[in-house]
Design a protein that fits this description.
Number of strands: 4
Strand content: 25-35%
Shape: globular
Structural class: alpha+beta
Radius of gyration: 14 Å
Largest sheet: 4 strands, antiparallel
Strand order of the largest sheet: 1-2-4-3
Length: 110
């Protein structure tokens, strides 16, 4: 949040763009916020270092494994809406590691 304030990044769209770019810059993959509402949201992860690494080592799995991205998305929503950390819960409802083309994360305000 300090970075966004210190660099005069004010609009929700600008904040989302910076957070998505940061996720990619960290080498975690690519995410896109497809919906951000007052009480919920959705994020698509088209590529994931975590899922790719899992699949190279163990193959597909019967449940999602990308908890790092889920946590990042919860923090992203808190940062861009200026709510405290822990305000949002994120769950992976479709997963690359489970064989999906992309991962889909649903976000709910706690």
């Amino acid at each position: 949040i300090d970075y966004l304030c210190n660099h005069n990044i004010k609009t929700i769209g600008e904040k989302i763009d910076i957070c998505c770019q940061y996720y990619s810059a960290l080498g975690l993959g690519n995410i896109e916020v497809t919906y951000l509402g007052e009480y919920s949201g959705e994020v698509i992860c088209s590529s994931s270092h975590i899922d790719s690494g899992w699949m190279k080592k163990w193959g597909t799995y019967d449940r999602p494994v990308n908890y790092i991205t889920a946590g990042y998305i919860s923090a992203l929503f808190a940062a861009v809406t200026e709510h405290p950390v822990g305000t949002y819960r994120t769950s992976e409802v479709e997963s690359i590691v489970m064989g999906a083309e992309k991962s889909v994360f649903k976000v709910v305000k706690s």
